[in-house]
């Protein structure tokens, strides 16, 4: 018989992982504990979990699967609808959480090691700055998207970069990039939604509405589907 051992830590303990003063003792204790289990021949494997702030919640509701980013209530559950970033009021955002996020990003930058989560956090930071200040940072945003597009050119990254291209005033180039992915991503909702956004930028309303209809057809979330069809 085999057992899975789950260890739950309070946030103050998890924070020690990134604290230069506390990290050596924290990881040293774990290394000793895991080493003892290994030497005793009773451990088959182990893996640490990501912090709770990166968690994803999976729910089944009315027989449908709902994936929710983060261990908190979905904004669309609270507000009764889907509100995209560009239509949200930044004055309703939590200043405490924004300050905490910026502090974590600065702390991560001191490690001088480029990683996926640092880039994603930097992208979100630029989005937030643009909404709070009204400043045009589309060029910086595109530059940030270029990094994951080179390092891990997955579908979501490439579609997001196409959206950034459009925001930087290069809608025709964005449409060409999306067209180049068409065969592989015909069933991918973000591809259709981004295509609709780009077509709107180019003034092709009919094609944009058709793309939104196609996006709604492959959308699992009722709130997002309703928003797409109402445009």
Provide a compact summary of the structure.
This protein is mostly helical and 231 residues long. It contains eleven helices and two strands; from the N terminus they run ααββααααααααα.
Describe this structure in words.
α8 runs antiparallel to α9 and α9 runs antiparallel to α10. Strands 1-2 form a two-stranded antiparallel sheet. The protein has 3 domains: 49 residues, no CATH class; 31 residues, no CATH class; 147 residues, Tetratricopeptide repeat domain (Serine Threonine Protein Phosphatase 5, Tetratricopeptide repeat), CATH 1.25.40.10. A hairpin with a 2-residue loop joins β1 and β2. The chain is mainly α.
What's the SSE blueprint?
Layout: H1 11-14, H2 23-39, E1 56-61, E2 64-69, H3 75-79, H4 95-109, H5 116-133, H6 138-151, H7 155-167, H8 171-181, H9 189-201, H10 205-217, H11 222-230
Antiparallel strand pairs: 1-2
Order of helices and strands: HHEEHHHHHHHHH
User: How many structural domains can be distinguished in the coordinates?
Assistant: 3
CATH architecture of the largest domain: Alpha Horseshoe
The order of strands across the largest sheet is 1-2
CATH top level class name of the largest domain: Mainly Alpha
Largest sheet: 2 strands, antiparallel
CATH-assigned homologous superfamily of the largest domain: Tetratricopeptide repeat domain
Coarse structural class? mainly alpha
Shape verdict: globular
Strand portion, in percent? 5-15%
How large is the radius of gyration? 21 Å
CATH fold naming of the largest domain = Serine Threonine Protein Phosphatase 5, Tetratricopeptide repeat
Q: Spans of 5+ residues with little confidence (pLDDT < 50)?
A: 75-79
Separation of the first and last Cα atoms = 56 Å
Number of helices: 11
The chain-level mean pLDDT equals 82
